[in-house]
Amino acid sequence: MRAVITVIGSDKIGIVYEVVKKMVEFDLNIVDITQTILDDYFTMIVIVDLTKMNVEFQEVVDAYEELGKKLDLSIRVQHQGIFDKMHQI
User: Fold this and answer.
1) Which residues contact residue 72 at a Cβ distance below 8 angstroms, ignoring those fewer than 6 apart?
2) Do 42 and 35 meet the contact criterion of CB atoms below 8 Å apart?
């Protein structure tokens, strides 16, 4: 099972560190990652493997929502299947 984590907001030092630190905390494995800065907006999409996740999925969702509030970013976690269905044409 996989999930997609999206991060969007004003660029600042430490975003990648804070997001990845949570992944380590929850035993999420990065399968793919892309990150760029568009006109001073930081954007990152990470696909993670949830196979070894050590908490319930909702705890991951809630933790990233709180991290987003702390860092003044939009951070969303979705099961990959839901993400894929939402973005089909």
Assistant:
1) 9, 10
2) yes
